[in-house]
């Protein structure tokens, strides 16, 4: 069994497709298929269930998956040790990011990282399932590090460091019945439609928990995956919504209300998988992030 066999297997498992795996690996699809078949023959068991439209792991494949990741991680650590002895750092780091959340100046951060370590490649990934999706990709080994906005303590299986916190305010159109109220309760808001992010996003999880705590079942009539665009829909009168003030640059036609009976506090963390030691390239990224953000920020409006 060669490391190449494991790399091809993981590429298929992560992408759910031999075609997409081949594109990721920059090889022909027939080479991926042949390599995976050779691995299955060696193991004496099928690793994938193949159908015309989907590729899924067999029970044997699911059992093999974490061990394959561990083996490649160990091989990467061995390469890192040699590179450190030579005074060089090379490899890649895959970073999960959040859209519209610019608390961390990633372009500036990556520019400095490239200056210090020009042989390091950074891959940025955003998850369609928001922070919950990024957290799962971390656990599965598809990401090396991720920025998360999940409320509460560190999610299971992850190590996190707090980067920033911000209180959420309620934004309503200036023509809304609540405009000018100043402070409202969650119970008062139950009758109004909301603009929010989809399930799995940190903002949505936080606000859903708040309403559940007071037994109110609110209605989200518009979901936007990019939280930075939500204010446009609120301003258009399509619903009210909770946002961090740093996301709202223009209060034209908007009113800002505070919630009197619940502390809605959004947080941003950086996370890694608890069961895997970060690679040298990931450590370099985290060290630089620590230099730029040594302690948590309290965010307010512009």
Describe the structure.
The protein is of the alpha/beta class and 302 residues long. 40% of the residues lie in helices and 23% in strands. It has helices spanning 3-15, 18-25, 29-43, 59-85, 106-116, 130-140, 186-189, 202-213, 230-235, 280-292; strands spanning 48-50, 55-57, 91-97, 120-126, 145-148, 158-167, 169-173, 183-184, 193-196, 219-223, 241-243, 254-259, 265-273, 297-298. Strands 4-3-5-13-6-14 form a six-stranded mixed β-sheet, sandwiched between helices. It has a four-stranded mixed β-sheet with strand order 8-12-7-11. Helix 2 crosses helix 3 (29-43) and helix 5 (106-116) crosses helix 10 (280-292). The chain is globular.
The largest beta-sheet arranges its strands as 4-3-5-13-6-14
Strand tally is 14
- Biggest sheet architecture: 6 strands, mixed
Strand content: 15-25%
3D shape: globular
Tally of separate helices: 10
Global Rg: 23 Å
Low-confidence runs (pLDDT<50, min 5 residues)? Answer: none
Q: Helix and strand string, N-terminal first?
A: HHHEEHEHEHEEEEHEHEHEEEHE
Name the helicity range.
25-40%
Q: What number is the mean pLDDT?
A: 90
Provide the structure class: alpha/beta
